[in-house]
Prior knowledge:
Blueprint: H1 2-6, H2 10-28, H3 32-42, H4 48-71, H5 77-83, E1 84-86, H6 90-96, E2 102-106, H7 112-123, E3 127-131, H8 137-147, E4 153-156, H9 160-166, E5 173-177, E6 188-193, E7 196-201, H10 203-211, E8 215-224, E9 227-236, H11 246-261
Parallel strand pairs: 1-9, 2-5, 2-8, 3-4, 3-5
Antiparallel strand pairs: 6-7, 8-9
Amino acid sequence: MIKFFSRLPLRALYAFSTFLYLLAFxxxxxxxxxxxxxxxxxFPESSGAERERIHxxxxxxxxxxxxxxxxxxxxxxxDMCGRVQIVNLDAARQYLDAGQSVMLVTSHLGNxxxxxxxxxxxxxxxxxxxxxxxxxxxxxxxxxxxxxRFGARLVPAKELLADFLRRRGVVRAVAMNADxxxxxTDKRYWTLFLGQDTAFYIGAEQIARATRLPILxxxxxxxRRGYYEVELKQLWDGREATEPNTVTERYxxxxxLDVLESPADxxxxxxxxxxKKPLYGAD
Length: 283
C-alpha cells in the first residue's frame, strides 16, 4: 500500500498534504498547545497574528515533509539528487579524500529525511547515520527501510562510538541530528538558544573529540516546494584546541541562525524545552 501511494505524482501527494494541513490545524489541532506555547516563548514581541502565520506555515511544511518521505519510497537516485542540491561538498571531501572521516551535524529543519538521502547519494563516501530506535517494531522496520534505501547505514545513537571504533578503518561520514532535547539521564550542555535556557546533547562533540573527527554543520534551506539546498559549514577541524562544549555552542548558534531565518521550517511540534536548568551548579 505504501509503495502504491508513493508512486503517485508529487502534485497529487501535495494535494493530500494540503488536506492533512487543514485537518491538523482546524480539526485535530495537532499539538496545538505545544506549538503555540513554544512560538510565544521564542517570539514574545510578535503579534498573535504573526505567530499564527508561522504556526500555519509550519504545519503546511510539516505535512509536505510527510508526503515527501512517502514519495522517497519510489524515487530514483536522479530524482532525489535533482531535489536536494548540495552546494559545497568539498567542505567534507577535503577530509574524506585525505583518508579522514568526518562528522556531520544537522537539525530538524526543512526535510531532514531527504537531506540524509541527498548527502548519501552525492558525497561519494559511506554515511553512517545515528538514530533513536522506535518502540513499535512495524514502524521501526518501515523507517529503517526508508532511511537506508539510498545507501545510508543506520546505527543506534547509543552504539555510535563503539560502532565507529570497530570500523575505524572505513573512511566515512558520521551523521547526527543534534537539536533534540536530552533526557534526564543524558549529559548535557546549557546555553541560551532562541532566548531560552536550553539543554543540548554533548555526545556529538564528545565522540568527535575522542576520535578527532572534524565536525561540519549541515544547513538545509527550502528553495521552493519539493526542492532543497544544502550547505556545509565547518565547526571544528579536529585539531583546533578549544574548551569543552565550544563546538556544541557553535552548533547551537548555527542552528539558531537558521531557525530565525526560516522559523516555519523548524520542528515546533517537538517539545524542545522540557528540561529546566538547575538553579545551582553545573548539570
